[in-house]
Give the backbone structure.
Amino acid sequence: MKIDLTGKRAFVTGATGGLGRAITIGLAASGARVALGYNSAAAGAEALAALMPGEGHLPLRAPVTDSAALAEAAAEIRAAFGGLDILVNCAGITRFVPHDDLDALEDQIIDDILAVNVRGVVATTRAMRPMLDASDRGAGGKAVIVNISSIAARTGMGSNIVYCASKAAVDNMTLSLARALSPKIRVLSVAPGLVDTDFVKSLSQDWRDEQAARTPLGALAQPEHIADAVVAAAGLLTYSTGAVIAVDGGRPLG
Ligand SMILES: NC(=O)c1ccc[n+]([C@@H]2O[C@H](COP(=O)([O-])OP(=O)(O)OC[C@H]3O[C@@H](n4cnc5c(N)ncnc54)[C@H](OP(=O)(O)O)[C@@H]3O)[C@@H](O)[C@H]2O)c1
């Protein structure tokens, strides 16, 4: 089934990352006009905007730890698009720290992860809310926020303890925000399992094979699986809010 987002206006944070890129392309391929939020990858956002299907996409400086910059980004979206119907909070960071090595999990690492992965979701949502509230083009008449969380929120397994906790916080905020922002805005989490992005491809084949073998569906996720879930959340699941959509091949069952 082709999901039609023609006429919808979307903003993706972390738009040039491994998942953000696929999500941004997926939204554009479904007809949406997309603002491509970047932190450091200005050139990458320009290049991606130029090759995406459709027209009028907007590379946009949007560091999620800088609320003044987010206010400027909101103003730019309003000026270029006239409003916003879909927000995807995709920007996220982590560092690999073994869970039993608490000494290596330094305060600065903790603060940085929480600032981007948790505070960034709140700050971006806060900046974009007036436009989302005013949206009359959301699918099913509602604007939508899709928060990219992680299987780590549920399993407590992931790159480090605080990363897992940050994604649990995202899923929890999806619940609170879905209630608080209703009825005008739906809020959903999309929770990927391990995705075969460039970073994961750079790890050993044996390790990747082991991860795939532990997954009931027998493979790692591709970025397009996550993009499909975001497009479905935006354009198809119009009576769903406050839900966490797992896109993990059933890994927690394995
Ligand atoms: N990859 C996986 O297997 C996986 C699994 C589950 C969940 N996730 C989640 O999916 C999301 C995307 O992951 P990914 O694999 O695509 O990561 P990635 O390739 O490392 O990309 C991270 C993105 O976040 C942006 N970013 C970092 N700090 C930022 C800040 N302060 N302000 C705004 N943007 C910032 C980066 O922007 P610039 O490049 O412009 O600096 C980049 O676009 C993250 O939330 C991650 O936790 C990933």
